[in-house]
Design a protein that fits this description.
EC number: 4.2.1.40
Structural class: alpha/beta
Oligomer: single chain
Strand content: 5-15%
Distance between the termini: 54 Å
Number of helices: 16
Number of strands: 12
CATH class of the largest domain: Alpha Beta
Organism: uncultured Thermomicrobiales bacterium
Protein name: glucarate dehydratase
CATH architecture of the largest domain: Alpha-Beta Barrel
GO molecular function: glucarate dehydratase activity
Strand order of the largest sheet: 5-6-7-8-9-10-11
Helix content: 25-40%
Bound molecules: D-glucarate, magnesium ion
Catalytic activity: D-glucarate = 5-dehydro-4-deoxy-D-glucarate + H2O
Largest sheet: 7 strands, parallel
Amino acid sequence: MKIVDMKVTPVAIADPPLRNSTGVHEPYALRAIVELVGEDGRSGFGETGCGKGTVAALEGMRDLVVGGDALHTTTVERAIAARLGGLPVDPADVARQHLDLTPTRPTTAAQRTFSPIEVAALDLAGKALGRPVCDLLGGAVRDAVPFSAYLFYKHAGGGGEDGDARPDRYGEALTPEAMVAQARAMVAEYGFKSVKLKAGVLDPDEEVRTIRLLRDAFGPDVPLRIDPNCAWTVETSLAVGRALADALEYLEDPTPTIPGMAEVRRRLLAEGIAMPLATNMAVTKWSDVPESVRVDAVQVILGDHHYWGGLRAVAQLGRLCETFGLGLSMHSNTHLGISLMAMVHLAAATPHLTYDCDTHYPWLDPADDVLAAGSITFEVGAIRVPAGPGLGVEVDRDALARGHERYLRVPYRDRDDVGEMRRRYDPAWEPRIPRW
Ligand code: GKR
Ligand code: MG
C-alpha cells in the first residue's frame, strides 16, 4: 500500500489534577495524531505525546514517509534514525532522563518520532489487507489484554477549563482513605484485577499505609504496585521495600538511576527480600539495557512503544527481557484511544508480557477521545483484541477537529507539572528528586 499523504494534528484533552513526584497535571494534556493516507484513499492513524517540537519533528519526516510502502516501516525507521540519531545529545538531558516524567524525553527523539508513524502505517496496511495490526506483528497469543487500575493522589476537579471543564468522576484523593475510595470506584467501573498506585506525593509512611489499606480492601489476590517516580532515597526505598515486602508484585522506580536501583536491589536481596524492581525511568532505551543487566538494577522493564521505537521494537524488547530473565510490563502516559488500541495489539502479539499493562485511559473523559464514545470497552479489566482490520477502531473526525481547536486555545506547548503545582497549589513548590 503506497502512502500518498501524511497529516499531523496536535490535540488537547482535558486532564484532571493528578499528582506525582514532580507536581501536578495541567488542565490539558497534549497529544499528536498522525494520519497516513494510502493510495486507495484509506487512512491509518497513530498517536504520541506532544511537546513544543513534536509536530515539526514529525512534519520533518514527511519526505521519508510519503511515497513509501506502509509495510516497509524498517526503511523509514532507519532513515529517521539516520536523520535524528546524528544530532548532538545534550548531556543535561541524559542526566535528566531518570527524572523526566514527560512523554517527550529528548534522549529518545528518533524512536519517539518513528513510533506514531509506524502505528499509522500498520493501521493503514492492516486496513488494506483486511487484517488486524496484531497479525502484522506475528499474530495474537492472547485474545484479551488485561490492564491495571492506575490510582493517583489528586486534587478536586475533572480537568479542562470553562466550557471544557469535565466532571470529577473520582473526586479529591489526598489521603490513604480517599485513595481506597478511588480504587473501589475504578475497580467497580472497569473490573481491574490489579492495582498500581502512583506515589511520591505523600510522606512515604502514608503511602505505605495506603498500600496496606488497599491490601485490606482487595485482599491478597489483587496484585499491588507502587511507583513514586524516583522520589525516595536508597534508604527510604529500602524502608518501603521492607514494610511492603509481602504486599507488592513489584516496586517501580523507587529511586533514581541504574546504580541507585542496583543498590536497593542488592541490599533488599541481602535481607532476603526478593521483590522485583520495575522501571520506566532508569531503563528507557536500548543502550541502558547492558549496564542494567550487568548490575541487576531492574527485574521488570515497562515497555512503551511511544519512546522505545514503536510496536515491533517493544515486541523485540519482550524477547530481550525473556533472554535475560526479566519481566515485561507496559508503561503509559495520559493518552487517547488510538494509543490504547496500539498497546492492545502490541500486548496481544507479545508472548513475554508478564504483567497487566498500565493505562491512564480511565482518567480520560469520553468527550475528549478522538474515537466515538464507547468504541473501547473493558471487560473485567481487559480489552478484547479486535479482529477487524488495522487497529480495529475508527477516528471520529469531528472529535479530532474539536481536540485541535482546544489545542489552539491552550496557551502552553510543553507539559509542566512543576509550574502547574506552583500556579495552583503551592507557590514555593520545589521538585526535589529524591524528596524523602
Ligand atoms: O501521569 O503523572 C503521570 C505519571 O507519573 C507518568 O508521567 C509516568 O510517566 O505513568 C508514568 C510512570 O509509570 O512513571
Ligand atoms: Mg513508572
